[in-house]
Amino acid sequence: MDINYCYKMFLNILKRLKNIFGFSHDSKYVKRYLDNANMRSGLFMSGVIVVLEIWMIIRYYVEDIIPDMANNPSINFFQYSFQKNSMFWLLLSMGLAMFAYCAYFLDKHLNKRKTIVVVSIAIFSLILCCLFPFEPIKALSSDIVKLLLLISIYSSILLFNISVIIATIYRYKGGNNYLITSALVITFFALSCLAFGVRVSYHDYVKLSEPKMIICFLMMSLYVGCLLIWKPYISISILGTIFLFFYLLLTSFKDRKLPDGDLVNYVTFFISLAMVSISMYAQRVDEAKKDEKLEVLATTDSLTGIYSFDHFLNLVDEKRSKEKVLNEWLFVFFDVTGFKLYNYQKGFIAGNELLKTIGKMLTEAFPTGIVSRQADDHFVAFIPKENANEIFNNVNEKLKALDKDIRPYLIAGVYVYQNEIEETNRSVEKARYACGELKHRGVGNYYLYYDQDMHNDYRKKQYIIRRIDEAIQAREIKAYYQPVFWSKDGSMSGAEALARWMDSKYGFLSPNEFVKALEDSQMIYKLDLEVLRIVCENTRYNIDHKLAVFPVSINFSRMDFTAVDIVSLIDEIVTEYNVPKNLIHIEITESALLDDAELLTKATRRLKKLGYSLWLDDFGSGYSSFNVLKDFEFDVLKLDRKFLNGFNSNEKSQLIIKSIVNMADSIGLKTLSEGVETKEEADFLKNNKCGRQQGYFYSKPIPYEELMKKILKEEFKVSSKID
């Protein structure tokens, strides 16, 4: 046989034995898990001890003390009661102290009152331990073995109560190594139980010809070996020592021999107890490791390795509950500027590595703070206010140095923690709002603090989010129509439906106010679907009353496609009103296609298959316009209004528009130009074969009723061509 194979087998056996007997190193989580399990077991054990001791005290009063007092009235009640029941009162106080400490240890919300209660119970038990021994010790001075056993009980209980007092105060003060002090409590509690079991069983064995109380020792051994989870080598050592000691006591009498059958049972019980201890330890460790993995998944961001956002919220709540004054702390919402471009140029793997690096940078920059990844390229932190601005700048300088071409950097929205009643998530939202404002303003700073003006805007945003459903029910959402015209003959080819909100409190709300708020909260689909419903309702009315019928385009946000199955919902509404699908055109902005190309590809294919015309809105506003044309099947291309800016003064604008129209025509795309404001622009577009036009030169967005009046008056002549 191969010597290397044998050596590996030997090492493998040693490793298995090491794991079986608990010599392997446990993680902090496993240690804490086992300690918590021991505390729960200690709670149960001490509860049983309290009940048993109360029962024994009552039993002794009923069967012995009260009859003796009746026969001899001169007996001092208190002295005689404690002389008879001193051990039971002592164990009762120990059980209460253990029960109180275990409950205190498992309690997540500690306070001064609870601490005083636990310490007081332990001090009371400590006083009893100091007062009770004198009479029994004097009575047992002739029996050295019984005397030593009694002293061992009192010593163990004495040390137990001292350890409870120390461990309770240490934990209340926020000590980091409270598991060690708790282990001392458990150890002295176990030793007290074993010492009591040995004493009672030995006393019964010596006193009676047919001893019956050996079961007390076995029961206490069972408690210590099975309910309390130790490393197997520790439990076997403790139990082995106490079993051997008890066996030597039982065999120390020359006039009495332990029966062979009892000896066999005694050894068998010890072996069984050792095996059960090993098995239970292995089971608990296995459970702990599984829970540890689940906790890591729940508390850690899988990509960066820093805290997950949900765990961040829990940690901040915990910190706020412990530290009442946190006015010098900040909530910070970080956004990585240039990340989309970095992802596009470098690839997703490089992008993920960048996020990992940023997570590490932030945790190192704020070692006393709490840092998490919220989602995508967004990070959230709860940090001390001191030198925060300087640290922001330093982090960004390091981050920019990582890539000298794209030079990504962080912008931060900052909210100063003020209101301890406010939910943590609400505070984060305010920091996020400030970050969004910074991004919108495009100012030169890396950070922006949440102020009163922002607070007023934020409250309005929250109002909009809360009221969207109510506004839809109250028919406060309106669809305004901006007509679209054929360049060739000036007839109306259709219209674009735009959302307007006539609020009962604020009056007319600008789309700039409510669209962004609803997009951020992923509720924009409710608005867009309501506009579609209004358009279908109006179109159905026109069809039924034989009025002018024309196609209407509706713009759907990128968030619609991620929040719900928007394609199915669109088709349900159109089908409900029995509107021909060629009268409903779906507009999707170019920027939306860049965010989730795979999702939008599937959605646009479904829409095309269902028979809807697809329009590409705001063409030219993104980074990869021509890739969009290559990868998606659109029917109409809408030129962004920015192309007409500086139309008269910048010849490049005209050349670019000509080129785009020609290119679109060559690949079978129809064109529409937005933002037409002058006759000169309209004529240029017509002469260069841009098929449709839209803008204030023709009409601003108007209500449906006003549009129909203009059509009836023939101010707008509706084309018979539907395309």
Characteristics of this structure?
alpha/beta, 3 domains, six-stranded mixed beta sheet, 26 helices, TIM Barrel, Alpha-Beta Plaits
What does this structure look like?
The chain is an alpha/beta fold. It has 3 domains: 19-296, no CATH class; 307-450, Alpha-Beta Plaits, CATH 3.30.70.270; 467-712, TIM Barrel, CATH 3.20.20. Helix content is 63%, strand content 12%. The protein contains 26 helices and 16 strands. Strands 7-8-10-11-12-13-14-15 form an 8-stranded mixed beta barrel, surrounded by 4 helices. It has a 6-stranded mixed sheet with strand order 1-3-4-2-5-6, with helices on both faces. Strand 13 (636-639), helix 24 and strand 14 (670-673) form a beta-alpha-beta unit. It is elongated and about 125 Å long. The model has no long low-confidence stretch (mean pLDDT 83).
Outline the secondary-structure elements.
Blueprint: H1 3-20, H2 28-71, H3 77-106, H4 112-131, H5 134-139, H6 144-172, H7 178-207, H8 214-227, H9 232-250, H10 260-299, E1 307-308, H11 309-322, E2 329-337, H12 339-346, H13 348-365, E3 370-375, E4 378-384, H14 388-402, E5 409-416, H15 424-441, E6 447-449, H16 452-473, E7 477-486, E8 492-503, E9 507-509, H17 511-520, H18 524-544, E10 552-556, H19 558-563, H20 566-576, E11 584-589, H21 590-595, H22 597-610, E12 613-619, H23 625-631, E13 636-639, H24 651-666, E14 670-673, H25 679-687, E15 692-693, E16 702-703, H26 704-712
Parallel strand pairs: 1-3, 5-6, 8-10, 10-11, 11-12, 12-13, 13-14, 14-15
Antiparallel strand pairs: 2-4, 2-5, 3-4, 7-8, 7-15, 7-16, 8-9
Helix pairs in contact: 2-3, 2-7, 2-10, 3-4, 3-6, 4-6, 6-7, 7-8, 7-9, 8-10, 9-10, 12-13, 16-17, 18-20
